[in-house]
Design goal:
The chain is mainly β and 708 residues long. Among the domains are: 292 residues, Rossmann fold (3-Layer(aba) Sandwich), CATH 3.40.50.1820; 84 residues, no CATH class. Helix content is 14%, strand content 35%. The protein contains 10 helices and 44 strands. The strands form 10 sheets. A 9-stranded mixed beta sheet has the order 1-37-38-40-39-41-42-43-44, sandwiched between helices. Strands 14, 15, 16, 19 and 20 form a 5-stranded antiparallel beta sheet that branches. A 4-stranded antiparallel beta sheet has the order 2-3-4-5. Helix 6 links the parallel strand 41 and strand 42. The longest helix has 16 residues. The protein is globular. It starts with 5 loop residues before the first strand and ends with a helix. The N terminus is likely disordered.
């Protein structure tokens, strides 16, 4: 194997006197956000139509925080006079202009004129409303109740968009299990005259029973769960006219169960665009529809791939342009920008980066440049770039190492840049998109500088095929290179996730820091092939054979750990959740003897039991890939158990349904093999809230007590 490691970053070591040292406890580490142990993050928001921004702090709303004299626009007491039942200052606003703010509270979309300090209108909506989406242009709110869609205005709190009695037909909610960039089910047109919405018919989708033990006797809660290889939902797109109060549907035949993804509007509200993907997810058609009639106008372009095509971003039209738009695609191996015109069959690839563009943020003043977020040459980072739309000249807007997120002003003159790195808890700056001139708005203090901590390093290993693999190692406090330390490997390993970043604490959780600082553990994480932001080849290596390349890379990490003189190679443990639970079981059972202890949380154990939308992309249908499904099936390896293994699941998990864990336990019992199990009653796919402390204590105590 090639040279294994290069260390690229070193996290601080705080040296303070003994009486000043604070010690993390596990509860505070798990609930760190609520305990003030993560860097301060202020609420910043641009004022619409201006290049000024607000910051909400200490029940006051400041304008141009720290750049001028910090004038206060209004405070909580001002709001209380107009809204007596308001319990707290809104953390963010639906919209803020030069004289008004709009915010959501107590089943009301409220408007407040902060110049004259008075309420200026409100939209009421029912208490059961969900999936809310406000449109400022027409001052209207879309929302759902159960399976139907409604709109509220100041004059009518419940305008009916759909009134379908069949509960299997659902309107206004995300479809396709929120895959392929779908995060919502309603789409206001640019001027708010129309509301497009997703509708799905789940009549043919199998019911999956989840048991509600809070009732006496317990009752069955059937959910619609489209398992791999079975019947899927049938999607549609409806269009509601605010003027005529009527609905038309786009003329699309989805009886073949193909997907309707990444819906977008033309700026003039005449057309709707959809990236339509076949169920096999290897062919995409970008189609254009008439918003008034629902008729299909044409297919603008297609994409094919023998593994998968996964559109994740809607079309973005150029400013003041009804025909030209930008499209993000990884068809050349990395997510790049392509430029199209609805009136032409020509396409132009604008960028040719060998790294991943993550998103389009907006356009600068004049619309000559597009602002994007991308990794740059280091996949562990996120940076903002300005790209000229004519010549593709690229300029880095955020030169500081680290992970950046940006908001752009409505006039395109400035960005608010918030970033962290291994060295910086959080820094927020305002930067000019034209000159690059910047001013610092605030710098967060290190909230754990007085605590005993270990050291965190980012490392680079080489996979068997020579690919760079990024990892993170946390060494114990008071580290002694002459001692031998036990190791906990935390793994995820699946698509669309990245565990190791150049951000505060290297992307680690505080419980990992507790494990290192208070329990003298080395805590290690590696982003194997198959994980996010490294390009299509890196991610798609898992196609039809999940677990294979991932395990190979994780074992490269194990080999590296064993090469370290301070690692006790006989005391290695592994833990992960969801895909990480699948990886934990795979590593423990398919490579016996490597780990003494493993805790698999919410684990996929048989990909035949997983959902269509995600599972068929990576593994195809089980009927077409029996070898791949059989090889990855955890049940086949229970006889290999050598050590202690704890399986954990939520009793009402709607994502990795309990059948995964139950069927695996059945296999252990059938083979007379002892295994440990814990079920969190009435918790879904993950255990959150205060019960998460119980979970992490269960996980970490199991590892500490058994990794001997």
């Amino acid at each position: 194997m090639k040279k294994l490691i290069s260390v690229v970053f070193l996290f601080f070591v705080t040296i303070i006197s003994a009486q000043e040292i604070k010690h993390l406890n596990l509860e505070d580490a798990v609930l760190g956000y609520y305990k003030g142990l993560y860097p301060e993050r202020k609420s910043l928001q641009w004022i619409d139509g201006a290049d000024e921004f607000i910051v909400t702090e200490n029940n006051m709303v400041f304008v141009n925080y720290n750049l001028e004299k910090r004038p206060v626009l209004f405070n909580f007491d001002d709001l209380k006079k107009s809204f007596p039942d308001l319990k707290s200052m809104p953390y963010s606003f639906e919209k803020i202009t030069s004289d008004k703010v709009t915010f959501d509270y107590n089943n009301v979309i409220a408007h407040y004129d902060y110049i004259i300090k008075k309420k200026s209108g409100e939209i009421k909506y029912p208490p059961k409303a969900e999936n809310k989406e406000y449109n400022a242009s027409t001052n209207a709110l879309a929302y759902t109740i159960e399976n139907n869609l409604f709109v509220a205005t100041e004059s009518n709190s419940k305008i009916v968009v759909t009134s379908i009695k069949n509960k299997a037909i659902v309107s206004g909610q995300a479809i396709a299990r929120s895959e392929m960039g779908i995060i919502k089910g309603t789409f206001w047109s640019p001027n708010g005259n129309y509301l497009a919405f997703y509708q799905k018919d789940e009549s043919s989708v199998t019911d999956y029973p989840l048991v509600d033990i809070t009732q006496t006797p317990a009752i069955i809660n059937n959910i619609k769960y489209p398992m791999n290889g079975m019947a899927s939902e049938i999607p549609k797109v409806g269009v509601f006219s605010m003027k005529t109060q009527s609905v038309i549907y786009l003329d699309i035949d989805t009886s073949d169960e193909h997907y309707l993804t990444n819906l977008s509007w033309s700026p003039n509200e005449k057309y709707i665009f959809l990236a339509e993907v076949n169920r096999d997810q290897n062919h995409m058609w970008f189609n254009m529809y008439d918003a008034d009639t629902g008729g299909k106008i044409k297919t603008l372009f297609e994409e094919k791939n023998d593994k998968w095509v996964e559109p994740e971003h809607a079309a973005v039209f150029l400013p003041n342009n009804n025909s030209e738009f930008l499209w993000l695609s990884e068809r050349d191996g990395f997510m790049n920008i392509y430029k199209y015109d609805i009136n032409s069959s020509k396409e132009r690839q604008l960028t040719y980066f060998n790294w991943v563009i993550k998103s389009i943020v907006g356009f600068d003043e004049g619309g000559k440049n597009v602002i994007i977020l991308g990794t740059g040459n280091d996949g562990r980072e996120t940076k903002a770039y300005k790209i000229n739309l004519k010549n593709a000249k690229t300029e880095l807007l955020t030169s500081e190492p680290g992970s950046h997120s940006v908001q752009i002003s409505s006039d395109g003159k400035y960005i608010l840049d918030s970033y962290s790195s291994m060295e910086n808890p959080r820094v927020v700056k305002r930067k000019s998109t034209k000159s690059g001139k910047e001013v610092t708005i605030y710098t967060s203090k290190n909230p754990i500088e007085e605590y005993q901590l270990g050291t965190t390093e980012l490392i680079t290993l080489k996979s068997e095929d020579g690919t760079n693999l990024y990892g993170r190692i946390i060494k114990p406090a008071n580290f002694d290179e002459n001692k031998k330390y036990p190791v906990l490997i935390y793994v995820y390993g699946g698509p669309h996730a990245q565990m190791v970043t150049n951000s505060w604490l290297g992307g680690s959780n505080l419980w990992m820091q507790w494990m290192a600082a208070e329990k003298n553990y080395v805590v290690f994480t590696l982003d194997n092939r198959g994980s996010a932001y490294r390009g299509f080849v890196f991610e798609s290596v898992i196609h039809r054979q999940v677990g294979e390349a991932e395990m190979e890379d994780q074992l490269t990490g194990v080999k590296y750990l064993k090469s370290l003189p301070f690692v006790d190679e006989n005391r290695l443990a592994v833990h992960g959740w969801s895909y990480g639970g699948f990886m934990t079981n795979s590593l423990m059972l398919r490579h016996p003897g490597v780990f003494t202890t493993a805790v698999a949380g919410g684990p996929v154990t048989d990909w035949k039991y997983y959902e269509i939308m995600y599972g068929e992309r990576y593994m195809d249908r089980w009927q077409d890939n029996e070898e791949g499904f059989e090889k990855s099936k955890i049940h086949n390896y229970v006889k290999n158990l050598d050590g202690k293994l704890l399986e954990i699941t939520g009793s009402v998990d709607p994502v990795v349904v309990p059948q995964h864990s139950m069927s695996l336990l059945q296999e252990f019992v059938k083979n007379k093999i002892q295994v440990d199990f814990f079920n969190y009653p009435m918790h879904p796919h993950n255990v959150r809230g205060v019960d998460r402390v119980h979970l992490m204590r269960k996980v970490l105590n199991y590892i500490i007590n058994n990794n001997q």
